[in-house]
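Troubleshooting entry. The earlier prediction with iron/sulfur cluster gave an output that would not parse, so I re-checked the input for stray whitespace and re-submitted. Clean input:
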Amino acid sequence: MKLYAPEYYKDFACIADKCRHSCCIGWEIDVDGGTVKMYESLKGEYAAAIRESIEPGEPPHFRLSEGDRCPHLNKDGLCRIILAYGEDALCDICREHPRFYNDTPHGREVGLGMSCEEACRLILSSDGYANIIEIGDTDGECADGFDPLPFRTALYAILADRTVPYPDRLEKIGAAHGVSLSVHTDAEWRETLASLEYLDDAHRAQFQTYSSDPATPEEIEKPLERALAYFICRHCTGADSSEEFRAALGLSLFLERLLASLAKETPERLAEHARIVSEEIEYCEDNTDELKYAFWF
Ligand code: SF4
């Protein structure tokens, strides 16, 4: 089937040693079975160190070093496995990060997750979010049944119309699918946010700044628009029913306002806030499910 991606996807390249928030720090990295087997037969100086670094288990994973660093991350921020054996020697998770996939009746879409510093920079600076282009073929079957793409196209048309004030565009997008953040009061949303799982507990307190107030400083309107396009792309594209699409749209609108609330006082830190929202919420299915639940009705 065909593989599609947002226009900015082709500009992505990991910035490796220039990355201040490397994905090789703070996460436990699972090693898939095929890669474990490949490492078992690997020859060369560094092969034994790779094998010894794997903690057996379900699934096996790299044993983290001090500071929760991947044991293969060198002091210059480069991956020793790549340096010794090239990118082909990476496990699936490392090769794929920060990509995510959604299957639709038209093919598969690949996107870039905003928790990655470089992906975040591209997402917040690219206006071509509505241009989803064919980038090749991939194995697999197209999804059947519900087709979310016409709905997404219609939402992007509303979002991209900068002749309409930004808060009005947000309202029109919600109204198109009967979604409103007012299903909860702001205090109730803050309670929900406090109950979520966090990688860094300091973010639990930071997220208490949440407000649904649609007023937005003009200087961050465009990056917020692009962030919302990304949230819609990530969460609505794989919907297999209109109910799922609506809940995913509710989540997307909520994440946009959470980001706006965090950036209101510190707009110069918008990209950092976006990266944190993504890593704390989007990368935890329990958290996204909890927030989407509010929009099932
Ligand atoms: S977070 Fe992104 S840019 Fe940074 S090391 Fe990981 S893939 Fe590369």
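This one parsed fine. Residues 149-293 form one domain.
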